[in-house]
Automatic annotation (TrEMBL), chain A:
It comes from Jiella pelagia. Residues 1-34 form the signal peptide. It comes from the Bacteria. The keyword Cell membrane does not apply. This is Beta-propeller fold lactonase family protein. Residues 40-114 form the YNCE-like beta-propeller domain. InterPro entries: Haem_d1_sf, Host-pathogen_enzymatic-act, Lactonase_7-beta_prop, WD40/YVTN_repeat-like_dom_sf, YNCE-like_beta-prop, YVTN_b-propeller_repeat. Keywords: Signal.
TrEMBL record, chain B:
It holds the Pfam family Polyketide_cyc2. It comes from the Bacteria. InterPro entries: Polyketide_cyclase/dehydratase, START-like_dom_sf. This is SRPBCC family protein. Residues 1-21 form the signal peptide. It comes from Jiella pelagia.
Length: 344, 178
């Protein structure tokens, strides 16, 4: 899901500096200070989106999102969150500063996985039923195009550069690479059975696909478009992300997080930490990964170095958080310009 | 791109029925019962994966590979019909195991993709036990517009009943000392 580490690392430093400034300004003016990272957690049964302060591990706000929300994407500047609502056949647009649902876009079909281009548009929505990736213009609030995927696309991710979009085509046992600009199919790569979550490595060299049906993760060469290796993980993996030179995989039925070496594929550990873990994402500095526990209704914080669970917070029923659900907190309204980072 | 867009718009116009589709979401059920016996007494009744005689709906069970991970037990129901359940996790020290039924016979249990965990924990300082049985599953009908007997509600009701009957009979079995 991440895929933007190196840049984000730099960007995060810029952003932290900018945020520090913004915080000072906010303090001086008596406004709310922007903090570190925020997790945007979709709870499917409760039909909500929760805003979690990841430094304090505290839910700051929860808003209603109808339609069994599942997928989540957040713009690079952290100001817009997009939520897929499979049952409402819509996506929701959320203003993360005012924490309000500001719009819904009817996309039809079965929207599930969702991602947003680094430029802020389009928003990519994997449509489970039409076997396509829909392109949504968040300003026009309309579907403006589509890419042809395999059957039942689920996860979707965009490269740091914004040039390549990848979908996990669950019922075709493949991942699709698209040129973001044209929609041209760069490659279709056969992976394990029923790939669900998909993400780029921070350096952009590899793509990870979590194979729900074969209890493995396919490590795919992002430039050569071939499977480098298939790594066995726990039961029913949901998603995989790399941070701190480790790949973390949520094993839904196993109740574990499998950790393996990104270059050798060797297992580092299998953390008996979790309870139907689903969405997983690193923080902006990469030091922690956050895991949504669907059954226990918690968000756990795992130290990516020590592999200890260092925090947990209760969230509403059925958290899925499927997508890149962690971003640096948005700056307060009016100071947005100062947080725009070079190179985006 | 524009041609694709045009085709897409046309598809949306002529296929409103398809556009109305959405998939099932996973459901959960969980129940805890307090049993008037120490945890090891309770665990002794359920610890063998190949023995589910403590459940009133199970007439016979057999697990040739015993309690090792990946072991499969065949369950024969008192009403007739069989199902296979796999052992996905087993921890005697923590008195817990997890199971998975990939192909549920919906005549016996109105759900699919059923996974469950049963755990025994000490209660009231270890004099009693709390047994928790939790399950996650999808409804019995995987597509849209499920019949009433195989919808989300029916799945939750059906699985909850299976759990409740099992736990109540486990309590009875342990407390009567039989």
């Amino acid at each position: 899901m991440s895929g933007r580490f190196h840049r984000q690392h730099r960007a995060a430093a810029h952003r932290r500096a900018a945020l520090g400034l913004a915080a000072l300004v906010a303090l001086a003016t008596g406004g709310a200070a922007a903090a570190g990272d925020v997790a945007y957690v979709t709870s499917q049964e409760a039909e909500t989106l929760s805003f979690v302060d990841l430094d304090a591990m505290k839910v700051e706000a929860t808003i209603a999102i109808p339609g069994k929300p599942a997928g989540i994407a957040v713009s690079r500047d952290g100001r817009r969150a997009y939520v897929s609502q499979p049952e409402a056949r819509q996506i929701a647009i959320v203003d993360t500063v005012s924490r309000k649902l500001v719009g819904e876009v009817d996309v039809g079909g079965g929207p599930l996985g969702i991602a947003v281009h680094p430029s802020g548009s389009p928003v990519y929505v994997a449509d489970w039923y039409s076997h396509s990736l829909l392109l949504v213009d968040p300003e026009k609030r309309a579907v403006v195009g589509s890419f042809e995927t395999g059957k039942s696309p689920s996860g979707v991710t965009v490269s740091t550069s914004g040039e390549v979009v990848v979908t996990a085509d669950r019922d075709s046992n493949q991942i699709s690479f698209f040129a973001a600009e044209t929609g041209e199919v760069i490659a279709r790569v056969t992976v394990g059975e029923r790939p669900f979550g998909v993400s780029f490595s921070p350096d952009g060299d590899r793509v990870y696909a979590a194979n729900v049906g074969s209890n493995s993760v396919s490590v795919v060469d992002a430039r050569g478009h071939f499977v480098i290796r298939t790594v066995p993980v726990g039961s029913h993996p949901y998603d995989a992300v790399e941070t701190m030179d480790k790949v973390f995989v949520t094993d839904q039925y196993g109740g574990t997080v499998t950790v393996f070496d990104p270059t050798s594929g060797e297992r580092i550990d299998q953390l008996d930490c979790c309870d139907y873990p689903e969405g997983i994402a690193p923080g902006t500095d990469g030091a922690h990964v956050y895991v949504a526990n669907w059954f226990a209704n918690t968000l756990d914080k795992i130290d990516a170095a020590s592999l200890d669970v260092v925090g947990s917070v209760d969230v509403p029923d059925g958290p899925r958080a499927f997508g890149e659900f962690v971003r640096a907190a948005p700056a307060a309204v009016g100071s947005a310009e100062t947080t725009d980072t070079p190179g985006q | 791109m524009f041609r694709k867009l045009a085709a897409f718009v046309v598809a949306l116009l002529i296929l409103p029925g398809l556009a109305a589709a959405h998939g099932p979401t996973r459901q959960k059920a969980s129940e805890t019962i307090t049993i008037d016996a120490a945890p090891d007494k309770v665990w002794a009744v359920i610890e063998n994966f190949g023995d589910m005689s403590w459940h009133p709906r199970i007439a016979m069970a057999d697990a040739p590979k015993g309690n090792e991970k990946g072991s499969v037990r065949t369950l024969g129901f008192t009403t007739g019909g069989m199902m296979e359940e796999e052992l996905s996790k087993y921890d005697a020290e923590k008195m817990t195991y997890s199971t998975f039924i990939g192909h549920v016979n919906t005549d016996l249990l109105p759900a699919t993709n059923y996974s469950a965990t049963i755990t025994v924990k000490p209660a009231e300082g270890g004099a009693k036990s709390d047994v928790t049985w939790r399950a996650a599953f999808y409804r019995g009908y995987p597509n849209n517009e499920p019949p009433a007997e195989l919808n989300d509600e029916a799945a939750v009701t059906g699985v909850s009943a299976f759990i409740t009957e099992g736990l109540e009979n486990l309590k009875k079995t342990v407390e009567s000392g039989s």
